[in-house]
Amino acid sequence: MTRLKSEMLVSAAMRYAAAELIDCVLVRRGDGDAGTIFIHLDALDGRHKLLARSLDFDGVYNWRAITGDGADGTGWVDAQTAASRLDRELAMDPDAFVIAVADNRARNPFLGPSG
Fold first, then answer.
1. DSSP string of 12-34?
2. Which of 3, 31, 72, 112 has the CB geometry, 3.0–4.6 Å to 35, for a possible disulfide?
3. Cα 31 to the chain's mean position, in Å?
4. Phi, psi at residue 51, to the nearest 5°?
5. Residue 101 forms beta bridges with which residues?
6. CA-to-CA distance for 65 and 51, rounded, in angstroms?
């Protein structure tokens, strides 16, 4: 199985976001070959969520919330909590990409039309 480079994935997601009028900004450019990708979702109503791309046991990539340990399990937190968590992640992995998405539907541009 061929793995796409992080830079290609980010570029494609940014083009898709532009076409769908999703406010999406590349905040930090990471390692082009294999940089971790973080998405900071802002639902424009005070809710924020950090997503990280991870590989499951079947070899399939998924997006998982890395914020919010609440009972609802949705991952939504306030802006400061999301920013603090992102700062901690970047301290461990300075080669990561960070994409900020401000969208009232909280769409993940990496998921395309199905997301």
1. HHHHHHHHTT-EEEEEE---TTT
2. 31
3. 15
4. -115, 145
5. 24, 41
6. 4
